[in-house]
Amino acid sequence: MIANPTRFWSKQAAMAKASGLGFSANFLVGRFIVFIRNTDLSQKIFSNVRPDAFHLIGHPFGKKLFGDHNLIYMFEPEHKNLRRRISPNFTHRALSTYLLIQQKVILRHLRKWVELADQHPVPLRLLCRDLNLETSQTVFAGPYLSPEARLRFNRDYNLFNVGLMSIPFDLPGFAFRRARFAVDRLVHSLSLCVAQSKERMRAGEDPCCLVDFWMQNTLEEGPEIMDLEVGGHLFDFLFAAQDASTSSLLWAVALLDSHPEVLRRVRAEVSALWSPESGEPISTEKLREMKYTEAVVREVLRYRPPATMVPHIAGEDFPLTDWYTVPKGTIVFPSTYESSFQGFPDPERFEPDRFLEERQEDRLYKRHFLAFGAGPHQCVGQRYAVNHLVIFVALFVSLLDFRRHRTDGCDEIAYVPTIVPKDDCTVLLSKRCGEFPSF
Question: Which residue(s) pair with 431 in the sheet?
């Protein structure tokens, strides 16, 4: 699994399919694991997250790495109460505030990409990762992270990413230990942002980022929560947004390049609603009118769900079927990837029209669309995530011409730990518009 995760998980899926049972079993770093391919069984796991059934863990050794503060480790009523407190962060007003921030950050990075490319192919993975990291920092923590703090933050986040894919030896000198300490520093940095936000909201200032909306609501409703606790949750948001969005941006570029008619339709829809020469950002209202572009984004998420599996652990023996009980302590991997290719007509075909109103496959086959999970722990920020992907696609195809630098196996799946094209989506880029907009 460490040396070639793509091959390892493909074998688990093949065994689950060949068995006719919908799941397979193996051992991973000394732990018994069950890989779930069948959508109904995956739904059963997602809907039974509770102390006496399955515990969502996000990563086989995530609790030790992320800490106990993480939202995914909570159960009702604590979990339900926290989600209620988080909801003001994703209102229409809040999302509209974030949308302008997202566009400004994306524009800065697209300018850099064009300068960097200079008629040479460039791999986009690390560039997209940096774009998403700055977007998350700015949307979530706003003005409270100084340039120096951002540099330290970026270094620590890189240590965390390396630790995610490393053998989990929690010993001095090992990547996993460095990642664990990096998480502590990241949470501390974010908790300082929380303290500054509280002071600003107490002074009656308008919210300008996610933590402001959260602190404004907290100060109005009470009871006040500890800065370090909120900092931990902000890190959870950042982790959830960071790698998943990077994966989806890369696959969006790759799939638009390989489907020129889809690209043509996206460009036509965006240009009918917004022009770079307008000097104005894309408004929330215009974004909502980009129905086909959003359908493309949702098809990207179906076709290549970034987190292909969502690890859970059995808190107790759990009857998965009439004849099989998952033993307590087993790590169970419901596969969102395998579910994406079940139920939908012609699932191996990349076809955004399936998500348009005429076909409504997003409703008819909703059980199989698990990119954002399901059940009580379904992603609370999915509207924000979709907005981010749609606005990136709209700006990218309007402002840049691009062509994939194709090599053998470039579209094969690689785990980093979310899935990306094997070649890191290497493309040739050039400016498409006369001038980049400035707002």
Answer: 400
